[in-house]
Amino acid sequence: MRIDIVTIFPDYFGPVDPAGRVGEAGPLGVSLIGKAGARGDIDFRVHDLRRWTSDIHHTVDDTPFGGGPGMVMKPDVWGAALDAVLAEAAASPGAAASPGASLSSGASMSSGASMSSGAAVSSGAGESSEAVVSPEVAAPARLVVPAPSGMPFTQELAAAYAAERHLVFACGRYEGIDSRVVAEARTRMVVDEVSIGDYVLAGGEAAVAVIVEAVCRLLPGVLGNEQSAADDSFGGAGGAMSGLLEGPVYTRPRSWRGLEVPDVLLSGHHSAIARWQRDEALRRTAANRPDLIRRLATAADGLDKRDRQVLAEAGFPVDGETMAH
Ligand code: ADE
Predict the structure, then answer these.
(1) 208 C-alpha vs ligand 1 centroid, how far in Å?
(2) Could you give the CA distance from residue 52 to residue 128 in angstroms, rounded to a whole number?
(3) 3 state DSSP class of 301
(4) Is the CB of 200 within 6 Å of ligand 1?
(5) What is the mean pLDDT of residues 216-236?
(6) Cα(172) to centroid of ligand 1, in Å?
(7) At 288, which helix (H) or strand (E)?
């Protein structure tokens, strides 16, 4: 998979080389996702939006039409950036699988480098802001624009993104990006405006870090244990925890500060353990996310008899019309 991120703060994602490849630090360079990047399974590219500005101050924003506070990001700069990133990715379709994408964190890595030396993408500042990529070339990529006004980012959407070949993230700042950028991009590719929660961040970078992590851990070979993604909170399709939050987990020692690991987990009785885990997941979901229980209660195969009994005992009757909370 190839992931391009366009931002005015490339430093947020750690050191970036002249081709936009990230180093071994920052949210894309560490842990299992960092290893997948180093193997070449994921080809991360981070681009400084200011490369596609055409004035001496590298201006990316302007005052909003209609008045109001704050600034709006300029469509001409974003249009040129997206055209160039899509064109470069289309010209190197094998990049995502190339082991040559592996990274080292040497002195050559510099977050400022991508701005001055446009090796991989386009010449940047001097480029015409009118350049347009043909629809055939741009079609395979999916554009994700994080915004508090977007649709909710969910595990389901993470799974859909994990099935894509190429994701491009456009990080907005200030009051957001001129709306024509998304409108124009939609004429040639799938575009999602996505929110990671009901709060307002200072920009899209943190949201991209969240989305990328949720997506990349679903890619084959990224998590050590293939089963663990299916058993997560929210579950994979058909997983035991489908639609539920994950319950409590324990490791050694069996007794710690007077607190014991539940006996059932030591019993070796697999079906009893699975039932206990589901009971705990139901209790936790009812306490923390009653909306998810409500959704399961209305799904044809969402809750069995035992589930309903557990929920009733926990003070969340879900039979018929009586639904607590
Ligand atoms: N940018 C600012 N706030 C955001 C949010 N809640 N989700 C995604 N992008 C954002």
Answers:
(1) 9
(2) 9
(3) coil
(4) yes
(5) 78
(6) 9
(7) helix 270-288
| Cα–Cα dist 187/154, whole Å | 25
- Tell which residue, 223, 225, 217, 231, has the closest CA to residue 281: 231
For a pocket test of ligand 1, which of 196, 198, 212 has the largest count of ligand atoms closer than 8 A to its C-beta? 196
The C-alpha atoms of residue 280 and residue 276 are separated, in whole angstroms, by 6
Ligand 1 midpoint to CA 239 (Å): 29
Q: Is the CB of 196 under 6 A from ligand 1?
A: yes
Residue 257 contacts by C-beta under 8 Å, 6 or more apart in sequence?
none
Report the pLDDT averaged over residues 37-61: 95
Query: Which of 173, 177, 195, 208 most suits a substitution to test ligand 1, by most atoms within 8 Å of the C-beta?
Result: 195
Strand partners, 191: 143
CA of 74 to the centre of ligand 1 (A): 19
Write out pLDDT tens, residues 250-293.
999 999 999 999 999 999 999 999 999 999 999 999 999 999 99
Which tokens belong to 304? 């069995």
Bridge partners of 61? 73
Mean pLDDT of all residues in 202-230: 88
Locus of tokens 């977050």: 111
Peptide bond into 27 cis (omega under 30): no
Contact 243, 233 (CB under 8 A): no
Whether 195 lines ligand 1, by a CB cut-off of 6 Å, is yes
Are residues 24 and 104 in contact, defined by beta-carbon separation less than 8 angstroms? yes
Closest CA to 145 of 190, 85, 94: 190
Band (pLDDT 50/70/90 cuts) for residue 120 is: very low
